[in-house]
Write a structure and sequence with these properties.
Radius of gyration: 30 Å
Number of domains: 1
Structural class: alpha+beta
Helix content: 10-25%
Distance between the termini: 115 Å
Oligomer: single chain
Largest sheet: 5 strands, antiparallel
Strand order of the largest sheet: 3-4-5-6-7
Number of helices: 2
Shape: elongated
Mean pLDDT: 85
Number of strands: 11
Length: 251
């Protein structure tokens, strides 16, 4: 009988070839995992920045809405706004704070708060006091707000932007506006020569001249600890806004 040779020779892998193939496979898998981890870290970083941006935007919008009303006393034809007979906080009379004629006050590190903080006022952070009449109420109410940064919040281990606000019944309510805000810095744009232009920015409580605008900067901090970003491992974002006043005020 005639022997027919198959068209292709069939040989098994040698041990050396098998080891090389395995090494190449491991290298490819390791490279793919490295790229995946890098992509995942980038995604998480972008997600954290987007969350910080949302928090900063909300905080600045809430502050701007209140600042723009500073000094508003209602239309000349309106009846005088109602106000509680007394304002008390933990048994202490806070009426002088609530009904002070100053539309804007600026204090440092928890100064200017009518009531104790929830935890502690953040160091090197300002307290901004705003007073005006509520324009949306059928029965206009005197409103007084003290914005500050507290070391405590509803989210574990995060500080928060908070507001102590005068209620219609005379209580002062401590409201959480946005957790994650760890710093609030304010400066007042002052018109020194009555030419309707900002001449200087002041950090004093009672500047000489007319307040034209309020410049606010907030710093928000992520709650996720990441050792790859350096420093203390927390991602931060600073955001700033210049708010022009609608009502003329001397502070």
């Amino acid at each position: 009988m005639k022997h027919v040779r198959p068209p292709f020779s069939q040989h098994a892998f040698t041990l050396t070839e098998l080891l090389i193939a395995m090494a190449l496979s491991v290298s490819l898998v390791a490279g793919a995992l490295h790229m995946f981890n890098g992509t995942l870290r980038s995604y998480r970083s972008l997600q954290a920045i987007a969350e910080l941006d949302d928090r900063a935007t909300f905080a600045l919008r809430a502050l701007a809405a209140d600042v723009q009303l500073a000094g508003y006393a209602g239309a000349p034809t309106d009846a005088p706004p109602s106000r509680p007979a007394t304002v008390r906080c933990y048994g202490r009379d806070a009426s002088a704070w609530a009904f002070s004629p100053g539309a804007i006050e600026l204090h440092m590190s928890g100064g200017g708060l009518p009531c104790p903080a929830l935890g502690m006022p953040a160091n090197d952070s300002d307290t901004l006091v705003i007073r005006h009449v509520d324009p949306m109420s059928v029965d206009p109410q005197v409103q007084a707000h003290a914005w500050y940064v507290d070391t405590d919040s509803s989210e574990s281990a995060l500080p928060s932007l908070r507001r102590q606000t005068l209620m219609p019944d005379g209580r002062i309510h401590n409201q959480e506006i946005m957790p994650g805000v760890e710093s609030l810095n304010v400066s007042l744009g002052i018109d020194d020569d009555a030419d309707a232009r900002i001449d200087t920015f002041s950090h004093t409580t009672a500047p000489a001249g007319r307040i034209m605008a309020v410049r606010i900067q907030v710093v928000v901090r992520s709650h996720v600890h990441d050792t790859t970003i350096g420093g203390d491992g927390f991602q931060r974002l600073a955001a700033q806004r210049l708010i022009f006043l609608r009502n003329s005020t001397n502070g």
